[in-house]
Write a structure and sequence with these properties.
With about 500 residues, this protein is of the alpha/beta class. The chain has a domain of about 130 residues. It is built from 19 helices and twelve strands.
Amino acid sequence: MIDLEQRAAGVLLHVTSLPGPHGIGDFGPDAYRFVDWLQSAGQRVWQWLPTNPIGPGNSPYQSVSAFAGSPLMVALEPLIDAGWLHAPMLPDGGFDARTVDFGRVIGWRQAQLRDAHAGFVAKRDAGEHSAFAQWSAQQCGWLDDYALFMALETAHHGAPWWRWDGPLRERDAAALVAARERHADEIGFWAFVQWCFDTQSHALKRYANDRGVSIMGDLPIFIAHHSADCWSRPDLYLLDDAYQPTSVAGCPPDAMAATGQRWGNPLYRWDRMANEDFAWWTARLRRALDQADVFRIDHFRGFAGYYEIPATCPTAEEGEWKPGPGKALFDAIERVLGPLPIVAEDLGFITRDVHELRDACHFPGMKILQFGFAGDASDEYLPHHWGRNFVAYTGTHDNHTVRGWWDTATAHERAYAGSYLPANASDVHWAMIRACCNSVANMAVYQLQDVLGLGLEHRMNTPGTVGDHNWTWRFEWGMVDAEATRVLALITAASGRCVFELARLP
């Protein structure tokens, strides 16, 4: 596992952006090839976005489970190799190699997983049966509710849980027992998919770790209203008697959003979670640490203070700040799990109490170089102000690519960046990568798009928007040339972030 206090560098690329023949990136052969490429370029970290099942808008930040893995990331090749699935026929015309068409991909891949489950049930040997049973028993704390939730969602044709039959909505014990019997096959399918996800993700992580590459995961702070988490423990959220949120999460108006951002997630009853010594959070972080070596917690400021928006307000303009759980939450988790390898996403409207909480927990914060050129030399996002306990980014999945930033920046930003880095339109991506790597920040991370010098059309996500342009980006291996790999390795080695000897680099 990577030491967050040592110098390292890495690449941000979501699993779904990998190449592959089945419509979306997954844990298949191209994931292993990407690890090999990271190693060849001197990179010690592969940062993912959340690997939970996607939700509305295809976003991984609005998931039906805080614990489950995305079925879309389950590679089909291992299922074929196991003899559970025949090599599938692709839809007419195949899939787009550079864009995820979720409308086509989701149904097609789920059909393949159902065929694989049927093959597993028919052909599994004693060892496979035992491995699945043992894993299911180990994961029962979250798996039982999740698999039943998904089976009931299917039975209710996708209707949200608060519209289910009363006894199921209210989790009547007898109704749940009957549902488990009635939907046993469907429950088995969803559990099987999660077993495949865990088996494949663990194998990939072992492969990466063996080659000196650590996995950085991503943990959304909030859960979705329509989720197994909210259905199984509605008492832990601010809901009314009809299980509707009385207030929701978001952030206030700022320069990026005139009416703020209304995310719509239900808010936690922190007092009730504290009464249970934050057991739900401890279980959640234990699960996160099972899947990654280190992870970023999204919207870290929400633990110091969160923005509460009345559910009746259609925008985020009427919210107010409320105190979060603070250090007591992380102290409770550490008592069970030990020191936590967490990177705090401390961006946006940040007050002193957020920095104090981050520093009291000894978590690295984040610095985004793109943010540094709107003002003057006093800007905190310029490298000469950074400390060691930070992760330096050229930009994240929520920002433009560096080339896209340059093309849309103001004349002042371009002039200042051109002088500071120095750089122009042709090499600004390398200049920003170099600036992050040469900084004192312990870790430097950049999007693969920036390593490849790609423009606006390759952006991963635009916050506060919903549409086909978000979460769909993929790359092809032909875009990754030897020169980009060589230059990245040189920059990384020269800045002391990998062990290459410069004289031996091509």
